[in-house]
Amino acid sequence: MGQKGSEDKRDSIIGLSKSAATDAIVAEDETRSPATVSTVLEHVTEDGTVTRDGVDEAVTDTSMILSTAETRAELASIALSDARETAGDAASIDAVQSRLATFDSKVSNVTDRVDELGTTVQELSHWHSTSLPIYDVVTGLRHAASEAQTLTARADDIQLNIEEFEHWLSNHDVRVREVDADVDALEYALDDLEQSVERVADNDDNADDWLDSMLRYHVSVLLVDDVRAELVDLREMAARADVDDDGLEDGAARLDELDSRVEQLGDRLDELAQSEWVDEHDEHLASFRATLNEFEPPISWGAVQSELEQYRPERDA
Q: What are the residues whose beta carbons fall under 8 Å from the beta carbon of 223, sequence distance 6 or more?
C-alpha cells in the first residue's frame, strides 16, 4: 500500500497537460516559479501532455550530453599523457613540473566531476523504480545536462592549453617569446608604478596612493624573482636540448634593468613615506608581504593580482 502510494505521488503529473502539471507542482511548493516549472516540464511534454516517454527521452538526451563530456575529459587526459611524454627528462625542471602538476589537477577535477555526474544520471535513469517525484527527476536531469555542457567546454579549454604547452615544451623560440612577453608586461607595470610614485611625490597628503604604490612595489619584486627563476629553468631546458640560449640572455639583460628600476622605486617610496602613513598601514603591508611570501616560482600572476586587489585601498566611486 505504501509503495503504491509513493508511485501514485511520483506519477501524479503523468498524463496531465503541461499547464495543469505546472499548477499541481507549484501548489506543492509555492516558492517555485510557475515559469521555471513550465520550462522544466517542456522537456518531458509530448503534444502538450507530460508523459513517461518524455521522461525517458530526457534521460536519453542527458546521457548523450554526458557522454560528450566523458569523451572530452578523456581527450584532455590523453593530451596530458602526450605532454608528459614530450617533456621527458625536462619534467624534473620546476617550470615544466609545475605546469604538468597544474594540468594534472585540472584534468583530474574535470574527470572526477564527470564521473560523479555519471553516477547521478545513472540513478535518475532508474526513476521508474524509485519514489522520486517526476519534477525532481527532470530537474536533476536538467542540472546534470547543464553541468555536463560546462565540463565539456572546460575539458576542451584544458586540452587546448595542454597542446599549447606541448608546443612550448618542444619549441625554444616559443619559450623565448613567452618570457619576453613577461618582461614586457613587467616593464609596462613599472611604467605605471613610476607614474603613481610621482603622484605621491606631488601630493604630501596622499596616503592611499602611497599605500597602493607600496603594494604594487612588493608585487613587482615578486614578479621579477619569478621571471628570473623562469629564465634559469629555460636555460636548463635549452642546455638539455642543446639549443643556443642567446635569446634568453637578451631577456635576462632587460630583467636586470627592470630589477634596478624596482629597487629605485622602493627606495623612492621609502623616502616619501610619512611617519603617520607607516604607522597606519604597517600591519596591512606586513600582512600583504606574508601573503606574497607564500608564492613560489613558477607563480600564477593572476593569483597574485587577485591578492593585490584584496589589499588595495578602496577608491571613491
A: 186, 189, 299, 301, 304
In tens, the pLDDT along 30-83 reads: 999 999 999 999 989 999 999 999 999 999 999 999 999 999 999 999 999 999
> At 167, which amino acid appears?
H
* 182, 296: one domain: yes
- Bridge partners (DSSP) of residue 17 are 49
**Torsion sign, CA atoms 226, 230, 231, 233:** positive
Tell how far CA 96 is from the center of its chain.
19
Give the predicted TM-score (pTM) of the model. Answer: 0.86
Domain hosting 18: range is: 10-169
Q: Which of 198, 191, 200, 248 is nearest to 220 (CA)?
A: 191
Distance CA 304, CA 288 (A): 11
Specify whether 155 is located in the same domain as 181. no
pLDDT at 157 over 70: yes
Cβ neighbours for 88, distance < 8 A, ≥ 6 positions apart: none
User: For residues 127 and 94, what is the distance between their CA atoms, to the nearest angstrom?
Assistant: 50
